[in-house]
Amino acid sequence: MVDIITRRSVMVDAADNVGGRQDVGRLTQVRSSADRPGAFPLLADDHGCGWRASGEAVPADFWKRNLRVSRNKRRSGSTLGFFRSQARSKGPRLKNTLDRLARDCRGTSILETRNERDGSLGQESTKTLFQEIHRLCHVEGLYPLGWIERTECPCCGASRFQEAFKKLGIRHSRCAECDYVCVDPYPPPQVMEVLYSGDYYTRMREFYELPRLRDQGIGSAYSAPVELLDALIAKGTGGRESGAWLDVGGGLGAFASLVSRRAPGWNVSLNEMNVKSIEIARDLLKLDVLPEDSAVLRAEGREFDVVSSIAVLEHVVDPVAFVSDYAALLKPGGLLITVVPHFTRLNVHVSKASNSNVVPPFHLSLFGADNLERLLRRTELFSGFETMQGGGASFTLIDHAEHWMYWDSLLPDADHAEIRTVRTEEYPLPLNIVLNALSLAVPVTSEYFAATDGMAHLAICATRKNVTPFGK
Q1: Residues 274, 251: contact at Cβ < 8 Å?
Q2: CA atoms within 13 A on the CB side of 98
Q3: Verdict on whether the full-model pTM lies above 0.85
Q4: How many CB atoms lie within 10 A of CB 25?
Q5: Phi-psi map region of 286: left, alpha, beta (phi>0 left; psi -120 to 50 alpha)
Q6: Which of 34, 94, 114, 187 is most buried, judging by how many CB atoms fall within 10 Å of its CB?
């Protein structure tokens, strides 16, 4: 089941940006074939939640009998630390248990996927996402030489950045005021250009996205659940039969095409600058493509009732400037719609690099609901906000353990157009045990975490003010 949850925040005094929130609750409840469709599947979303030892189910009291946790044991400082301390204190009994588990597991992992056997990382011809990031950033991009450090949080304006974690050797910083997390330092323009013309993006569009667009596979080529996108289209059109809609950075045009089908009376345009994407969007989907940037469109006098960006803002170096530039294309009272991967409070403070939304340096910004709204408020261009969430829980208990470095994604090719996630090496035994233990609770806790912490996809709809502030 996939929920879409909405929250409205309405300006009481637009001039002073004083707001009050009104909790609306659940908008609708629908089924989806996948909880986390997206462009960056680094880890198996299907974590698995069964016992993998010889095909037998783990006894209900196994963990209670063998690995009991009491309050005074928490001083070990971490889950793995606890297991090590237990091994020392319980001696031969626990050692025999671990030895038996090692024989039974035979190195298998609960994170195996259906596609894992399709590729082998031992072959020299295999190319993976992590390999490409390492080559383009560390070898050719000379990270961190020439990369640019942030001096101010784009969401709240504070300058109190703290190192949060590293992934693939790339540092992420956290704003101490609003919990915004970002790649810091971030790549200069020449590195960004190479990244987005590299094998990963080229192959994803050619072998994964394009065939699905041709087959019109529902939801398969979108960057968010189709149920959430449908709710956003309904919000944007507001029941009107006609209007002008601009989708920014929409790649091959999957979302713009969906808007055209759902609202046939609307004039839908795609703002995209990649030459190959423009060609496909025009020839295959018959879309009106505007390749110019926002400044050129504004100079031409272009205006729109809705401007959308789906899974774009997290890639942008300067999100404040991006929002301000495209908001300038909105008619007074028009709607800005933004969808980003949701990096919740538990992602910030617990899962960190293990969360699959952390894909440096493609994802430069990791937003939560509150700091994303603060960013939009900071532009002083909007009079009200409404947030929606969709997909499964953004946080999962498995992310307590740092497991991401044992997995990678194979780049799609002509023979394998599907997304394939492969394990690059075996887990150490203590980590294997921890992951199996945590996985037992995933099915019964995911709905709770989705409702209390947040869902995998975050959308915000911001209404353009009728009067532009002085100087804007």
Answers
A1: yes
A2: 19
A3: no
A4: 7
A5: left
A6: 187
